[in-house]
Amino acid sequence: MPRCSISGRPPGCTARSSVCPPRAATRSCRSWTSGQSSSSGSTRPGGAGPGPRRDGPVSEGLAGAPWALALLRDARVGRLATADAAGRPLVVPVCYAFDGSGCYSAVDAKPKQTRNLRRLKNIADNPQVSLVVDVWDEDWSRLCWVIVEGRAEVLGAGAEFARAIDLLVEKYPQYRALPLDRSGGAVITIRPRRMLAWRAA
Amino acid sequence: MPRCSISGRPPGCTARSSVCPPRAATRSCRSWTSGQSSSSGSTRPGGAGPGPRRDGPVSEGLAGAPWALALLRDARVGRLATADAAGRPLVVPVCYAFDGSGCYSAVDAKPKQTRNLRRLKNIADNPQVSLVVDVWDEDWSRLCWVIVEGRAEVLGAGAEFARAIDLLVEKYPQYRALPLDRSGGAVITIRPRRMLAWRAA
Predict the structure, then answer these.
(1) pLDDT value of position B184
(2) Domains in chain A, ordered, with CATH?
(3) Minimal Cα–Cα distance from A1 to chain B, Å?
(4) Of A21, B19, B120, B146, which sits 20 to 30 A from B68 (CA to CA)?
């Protein structure tokens, strides 16, 4: 899977991506698939959304705007939406790591609890997921978000599982005091198919 | 629709719900339907989730823990998950207002854009939605979240639409400078059927 073209942290971005970098262009929503981008025109914070559905070509990788990739890499929390077989959505906050091509989130619970966790059951029944990372600010000119759409898989062992745990421990020092379970836990891996990004100003 | 039993702001909650109030109990996830609550046992921040699915009785109202209702009332931003007819989820950050029985979020765009907005198309095809409001903190003992599950409807006129706009303008001073469209806009109303709540400590 190709890595994304991530440049350095854009000017104005803090270590925790507490603000979006300013730019000269007007508000817009952009999407990328297979390295292409398209604009959906202006929108407003109150109705900030991904805009009209675009069914572009599916890509194994992403090549979005540097600020959006930096936000996806640096944000400390995301919100993951899954849906069950009947299309009933569930959204939960998640810690995650983005390695430039995929996103990883750990589920560190006892095996029985892990098997019963609803997001995992949803993914088993319906692997389509959506992850949003955003910046909230009372100054709405600083609002921005990145939405990753893709397919999820639950890993419980293997090289990718181990690498995901390493990435998560590297990103979150908290996991050192609360060791992630490398034998009984599970990792949700999200393979992006499309990325949408928007910033207010 | 009955109003929720919201008490005053719990000790430790700031005006913007930046922290969850501490309590003596261990980590747990609770759900409420028809005023009932049930515990799913302990969980961990890294795997913080709503726990096993519980199909309790459906309720038109909510009667959850005071801290959870206060968080739902005071939080400045939530993340709303919808899903299309094929069960493909979409999660977006939203400004919203909670009046004790329902949640309201405005879509303030031009009529054509509003009609095309994907979350609205999703709701038209599949009214099941999930809204999460959470507190992120590097100190994971302060993590908490509330998830509202329910059915959504899109309003474009009428008394409930007008009241929702009033609630949103009251909660967000930003809407005074960026007037919400009372004729061409739309309001998503979420009628909760179940609430899940969790806090780390």
Answers:
(1) 75
(2) 62-199 (2.30.110.10)
(3) 23
(4) B120
Q: pLDDT below 50 — which residues of chain A?
A: 1-19, 24-26, 34-61
pLDDT tens-digit readout, A144-191: 999 999 999 999 999 999 999 999 999 999 998 877 878 878 999 999
Residue B9: other Cβ atoms inside 10 A: 17
| Vertex B46: Cα angle to B142 and A86 (nearest 5) | 110
Chain B nearest C-alpha distance from A95 (Å)? 7
Residue B60, min C-alpha distance to chain A (Å)? 18
Instruction: Give, as one character, the DSSP assignment of residue B140.
Output: G
Share of chain B above pLDDT 90, in %: 56
Chain A residues within an 8 Å CB radius of B140: 174, 178
3-state secondary structure chain A: CCCCCCCCCCCCCCCCCCCCCCCCCCCEEEEEECCEEEECCCCCHHHCCCCCCCCCCCCCCCCCCHHHHHHHHHCCCEEEEEECCCCCEEEEEECCEECCCCEEEEECCCHHHHHHCHHHHHHHHCCEEEEEEEECCCCHHHCEEEEEEEEEEEECCCHHHHHHHHHHHHHCCHHHHCCCCCCCCEEEEEEEEEEEEEECC
